[in-house]
Amino acid sequence: MSKFQRWKPLTGLSLLVVEDNPDEQRLIAHYVERSGGGVMLECNGKSAVYTMKKMMPETDQIHAVIMDLYLPEDDGISATREMRALGYDGPIIATSSRADDDNISEWITAGCDTFLDKPVARHDLIASVVRNCCDTMLREINEKNQQQEF
């Protein structure tokens, strides 16, 4: 076994997975857990926003959100807007099997950081989470450094 097979890039991270398809939900949870991450599961936008509200103001307990965009009881776009309005500034990674350029533009405008086509491949999901969490961390470090300069 190589050192990279043992590497668990999501160790210490907790993800909120919002997916209404039970098979997709299990698959994404499996990918995250196998990569060392923790998972909270929700099956609709309304319950995802409720979970986020419960964790406020400690949103650092959720390091990233994997958001299906076509959900019952508040779609992913509405849920994303509500999470951003609550002050969540971590990555929100949109997923869908029904995407086109207009949809993706709308999702990014709503506050999603990036988009993954379904079915989501494990390496694409993990790479996207790592990249977006690193971007968030670097942004926070830069903001702190700028505040200290004044």
UniProtKB/TrEMBL annotation:
Parts of the chain that traverse the membrane: none
InterPro entries: CheY-like_superfamily, Sig_transdc_resp-reg_receiver, ST_Response_Regulator
Key words, A-Z: Phosphoprotein
Domain Response regulatory: 14-133
Modified residues (4-aspartylphosphate): 68
Single GO biological process annotation from the record: phosphorelay signal transduction system
Name of the protein in question: Transcriptional regulatory protein DpiA
Organism from which the protein derives: Calycomorphotria hydatis
UniProt lineage: Bacteria, Pseudomonadati, Planctomycetota, Planctomycetia, Planctomycetales
Designated gene of the protein: dpiA
